Amino acid sequence: MTNNDALVGKKIVLGVTGSIAAYKSADLVRRLGDAGAELRVVMTKGACEFITPLTLQTLSGHPVAIELLDADQESAMGHIKLARWADWILIAPASADTIARLAQGRADDLLTSLCLASESPLVIAPAMNNKMWENQATQENLAQLQARGVQLLGPASGDQACGEQGAGRLLEPTDIVAGLSKLVVPAKLRGKRVMITAGPTYEPIDPVRFIGNRSSGKMGFAMAAAAVEAGADVVLIAGPVHLMTPHGVRRINVETAQQMNDAVIDNVHTCDIFVGCAAVADFQLETVAENKIKKTKHEKLHLDLIPTLDIVSAVASLPDKPFVVGFAAETEQVADYAQDKLNTKGLDMIAANQVGANMGFAVDNNALQVFWPQGTQAFPLTAKTQLARDLMTLIIERYNAKDST
User: Fold this and answer.
1) Main-chain dihedrals φ then ψ at residue 160, nearest 5 degrees
2) What proportions of the chain, in percent to the nearest 5, are helix, strand and coil?
3) DSSP string across 142-204
4) What is Dmax (Cα atoms) for the chain?
5) For 245, phi and psi rounded to 5 degrees?
6) What domains, with CATH codes, occur in the chain?
């Protein structure tokens, strides 16, 4: 799948900060518009020393926002409106000072305030002197931002305005547009309904204890956000996790495998795509104790377990089933087990990852091996937010290929 149309209709806030590279933002505005994006420009006061707001207003066709406390804008909470409007926030050039303030969670100007108030993905294209770029403080700030899911474009290396050479040059506008296009999920799911399950299930032993697993739900929630980016109407069936609901997602909270199964079956009949990302418990208690089981010094506790319902298999066996994507979390023989589940459960696609010590569950990064009847694709270790976009792009490709046959 190409990304030539990835930015068509995407609402992008372009932040321009105080760097000599701000002169390139005029060309960047034009090229983002040529790519089909809807654009609003926010400038810091430092940026206004290098390029005029009138230039970017003329090229974008919209007023440039600068002041946080603007009487005209703030009567309608201007920074909140921009934060809610944006599909993506792109800061190019991003100065060392802006990067530091973003890492600290500052909100002392319009740009940092809307970044803090927005749930939209953030992309930064750094531009600074090579020594500032190499400074440990800058690198630590960038690492902190990337751990939160912020994407980085560049910088390039070469001659700098200060007369030195090295890393720190802003990428060329064409490269920034190309890089952003690769990050964005094409909006190919408008009018489609996607259901995603996420997180663990807890199977009660007694009123205070349960059988569970280490799933944090992060991948499933990232998949829900990616599906919304692609234009889908998204229903998220979430086990017991402590995560904010992605913007635009309808969330149904459950606890047990039975509850998750019931929520899925009640809602899946209108779905076009089902993604079973939840780590559903494989077993539940045959009989749940009515009262707390007391600990004794000498007796062992025996629990009689029975299998839980296989939700993904149930969806795949429906007469008019959606496009079904399963997940396989394995500690060994990942590819073999995943392909076996793909075939035995009748899935359209399965995404497999290795779990264990600092892998898969409760971490921000992940890697996947994806299988479908006609092929396979590997996604290397990256932030789950971006991994979800990459996987959703592949799901769209395979869904469209199957739908056209």
Assistant:
1) -120, 160
2) 35, 25, 40
3) HHHHHHTT-EE---EEEE-TTS-EEEEEPPPHHHHHHHHHHHSPPS--TT-EEEEEESB--EE
4) 81
5) -70, 125
6) 11-183 (3.40.50.1950), 193-403 (3.40.50.10300)
Distance CA 32, CA 178 (A): 10
**What's the pLDDT score for residue 186?**
74
Identify the three-state secondary structure at position 305.
strand
**What pLDDT score was predicted for residue 356?**
57
Three-state DSSP string of 219-269: HHHHHHHHHHHCCCEEEEEECCCCCCCCCCEEEEECCCHHHHHHHHHHHHH
Residue 162 annotated as catalytic: yes
Burial of 226 by CB count in 10 Å (0-12 exposed, 13-18 middle, 19+ buried)?
Answer: buried
Q: How many residues does the chain have?
A: 405
Tell me if residue 29 falls in helix, strand or coil: helix
Task: Find where tokens 């003329």 sit.
Answer: 58
Closest CA to 17 of 92, 68, 102: 92
Q: Which residue ranges in the chain fall short of pLDDT 70?
A: 1-4, 69-79, 160-163, 297-298, 355-362, 403-405
Active-site entry in 48, 115, 162, 277: 162
Residue pair 36/8 in contact (Cβ under 8 Å)? The answer is yes
What is the secondary structure of 51-111 as a DSSP string?
S-HHHHHHHHTSPPB--SS-HHHHTTTHHHHHHHH-SEEEEEEE-HHHHHHHHHT--SSHH
Provide the 3-class DSSP secondary structure of residue 12.
Answer: strand
Backbone angles phi, psi at 97, to 5 degrees: -65, -45
Q: What is the pLDDT of residue 79?
A: 66
pLDDT of residue 247: 81
Is the backbone of residue 346 left (phi > 0), alpha (psi -120 to 50) or beta?
A: left
For residue 155, whether the previous peptide bond is cis, meaning omega lies within 30 degrees of 0, is yes
Q: What is the pLDDT of residue 75?
A: 40
Which residues, in sequence order, are bridge partners of residue 276?
197, 326
Instruction: Give 343-348's long-range contacts (Cβ < 8 A, gap of 24+).
Output: 345/310, 345/312, 345/313, 345/316, 346/313, 346/316, 346/317, 347/312, 347/316, 348/323, 348/324, 348/372, 348/373, 348/398, 348/399, 348/402
- Cβ atoms of 239 and 199 closer than 8 Å: yes
